[in-house]
C-alpha cells in the first residue's frame, strides 16, 4: 500500500519511486486519482525518459497538436516563461476537452522552479456538482456543452470540437463531476439559446472556481504532480512569478475502460 495523505482536494503520496513503479502502484494511483483528483509526488528527481516510462505505465500517451514539444521527446511538451516579455496567461480549464475522448490524466514534472510564485491551482469538480442548486441541476440534467479549441493552430483533419455532458459520470469512481472548461472554450449548451448558455457557463465557472473549492500547489524541486482531467480543473498562476519556471508535461490518452454517459450512448 502507498503511504498517502489525503486532503480536501488531492493527496500526497510518499514511499514510492516513480522510476520503478509496479502494476500494483499504478492501480492504487488510478483509484486515488479517481477519488482525490490530484496526486502530489515529492522528491522524484526524474529525467524525461523516466517521466515518460512512468506515464506509459498508465497507458498510451497523447500530445496536444500546436503545443511546443520538448526537444528529443515528441510525447512531452514544455511549459515555460523563459524569454517571454509577458507572463503566460492561464484560466481554469480542462486539457483538450475539444476532443471526443479528452486525455484522462495530465502530469507535470518540475524542471526549473522560480524563486517566487508559479503555483498550479486545482478545483474539485465533484464538489462543484454536489453544491449546485437543485433547480440548476434539474435544468441542466442530460444537457451537453460544446467544447471548442482556442489558441492552437490545427490541421484540417484534427478534431476541433466535441460535445460532453455537463454532468459527467467518472468512468472509474462512478461519481458525477461538473465537466466544463474555461468559458471561451464552452461554445454552447444543448437546448439553450446563446445568451442563456453564455450566462449559464459563466455561472457554472464562477461556482466551480471559488477559493474554498480550490487547492494551490507550491512547487519544489523534484515534484511530479498528476491529475485526473475527469474531476478537476487547473490553471497556472503566473501573476507574481520571479525567476524561471519550466515544466515538462505529458498526458495519458484514456482510462482504458469504456466511459459511461457519453452523448448518444
3D architecture notes:
By secondary structure, this protein is an alpha+beta fold. It has a single domain, classed as Double-stranded beta-helix (4-Layer Sandwich), CATH 3.60.130. The protein is 19% helix and 29% strand. The chain is built from 5 helices and 17 strands. The strands form 4 sheets. Strands 1, 2, 3, 4, 5, 6, 7, 15 and 17 form a 9-stranded mixed β-sheet that branches. A 3-stranded antiparallel β-sheet has the order 14-8-16. A 3-stranded antiparallel β-sheet has the order 10-9-13. The longest helix is centred in the C-terminal third of the chain and has 15 residues.
Short summary of the structure?
The protein has 265 residues and is an alpha+beta fold.
In the CATH hierarchy, what is the superfamily?
Clavaminate synthase-like
Reported by name, the CATH topology is: Double-stranded beta-helix
Measured between the Cα atoms of the first and last residue, the distance is: 36 Å
CATH architecture: 4-Layer Sandwich
Order of helices and strands: EEHEHEEEEEHHEEEEEHEEEE
- Please count the helical segments: 5
Structure keywords:
265 residues; alpha+beta; Double-stranded beta-helix; nine-stranded mixed sheet; three-stranded antiparallel sheet; 5 helices; globular; disordered C terminus
